[in-house]
Amino acid sequence: MKPVRKVVIPVAGHGTRVLPATKSTPKELLPLVDRPLIDYVVNEAFEAGIEHVVLVTGRGKGAIEDYFDHAFELEAGLAAKNKNEILESVRSTIPKAGALSYTRQQAPLGLGHAIWCARDIIGDEPFAISLPDVVIAKTDKAPTGCLSQMVAEYNKTGGNIIAVEEVAQDQTNKYGIVAPKGERGGRMFEMSGMVEKPAPEKAPSNLAITGRYILQPEIFELLENTPRGAGGEIQLTDAMDELMKAQQFFAYEYEGESHDCGDKLGWLKANIALGLRRPEFADGLKDFIQNAV
Question: What is the pTM of this model?
Answer without folding.
Answer: 0.92
